[in-house]
TrEMBL record:
The chain holds residues 20 to 265 of 293 of the full protein. Keywords: Cytoplasm, Methyltransferase, rRNA processing, S-adenosyl-L-methionine, Transferase. The gene is rsmI. The lineage of its organism: Bacteria, Pseudomonadati, Pseudomonadota, Alphaproteobacteria, Sphingomonadales. It is found in: Cytoplasm. It comes from Sphingomonas crocodyli. This is Ribosomal RNA small subunit methyltransferase I. It comes from the Bacteria.
């Protein structure tokens, strides 16, 4: 049926394309893509060929109205090069405008590097905060980190190999030396997740920028140190109550 289909695609292992995603892609009248070469490979893998239209940061504003118009009578799928569209990828304005136009919108959930990394790191998952990519410039990066330093949640961010060590060091400086994980090449042959404190990880990668795609996971702040004398006294009294019997 006509409408907009948000289709998640693999982040490395083509086996992660869901049967439903493959089915929707094979039947779409048009697939809006970031890079037609990347999506052509995926379509080839599932033995199909569909019309594609580029939809990326540089042309989105221009081509969006035509895509919205076509959704009235055609099934338009949106994919990005890898993972879930809209997550550090284009698409939310397309969904917004499709919604405003009253089109049917459905999502075909699947791989997302942020969530996959969160499941690898062994850090708390009950509350998490996704930062996307931090700014590249040092000052802007430090400011962005300062802004989120008080958030009591695990942090998830995307980063590139060459910038990893500097970002880990900036995180250690702005957040304190929290527990963290670096997940790399998820679902590919050289998948790994290295854990340690931010300082340890910064040192590990300083002289050896890793290759491939990377997600950084940072644990939440530890229990806050007592700030007033009354707090300290309450903590002490509580500790005394729980001393083992002698
Ligand atoms: N929309 C995508 C998703 O759902 O994960 C993310 C797109 S964002 C432009 C690309 C970034 O995601 C990469 O720079 C990297 O930080 C992360 N990423 C993508 N695939 C990955 C993988 N297989 N392993 C680790 N990180 C990955």
């Amino acid at each position: 049926p006509p409408g907009l289909y948000i289709v998640a695609t693999p982040i490395g292992n083509l086996g992660d394309l869901s049967p439903r995603a493959a089915d929707i892609l094979a039947r779409a009248d048009l697939i809006a893509v970031e890079d037609s070469r990347v999506t052509a490979k995926l379509l080839q893998r599932i033995g199909t060929k569909r019309p594609m239209a580029p939809y990326h940061d540089h042309n989105a504003d221009k081509v969006r109205p035509a895509l919205i118009a076509r959704m009235a009578g055609e099934a338009i799928a949106l994919v990005s090069d890898a993972g879930t569209p809209l997550i550090s990828d284009p698409g939310y304005k397309l969904v917004r405008d499709a919604r405003a136009a009253g089109h049917v919108i459905t999502t075909i959930p699947g791989p997302c590097a942020a969530i996959a990394a969160l499941t690898l790191a062994g850090l708390p998952t009950d509350r998490f905060f996704f930062l996307g990519f931090l700014p590249a410039k040092e000052k802007a990066k430090a400011d962005a980190i300062a802004e989120i330093s008080a958030i009591r949640a695990t942090l998830i961010l995307y980063e590139s190999g060459p910038r990893l060590a500097a970002t880990l060091a900036a995180l250690a400086k702005g957040l304190g030396d929290r527990e963290a994980g670096v997940a790399r090449e998820i679902s590919k042959a050289y998948e790994e997740c290295v854990t340690g404190t931010l300082t340890e990880l910064a040192a590990r990668y300083a002289d050896h920028p890793p290759k491939g795609e990377i997600v950084v996971i940072v644990g939440p702040p530890g229990e806050a140190a007592p700030t007033t004398e009354a707090d300290a006294e309450a903590l002490l009294r509580d500790a005394l109550l729980h001393l083992p019997p002698t």
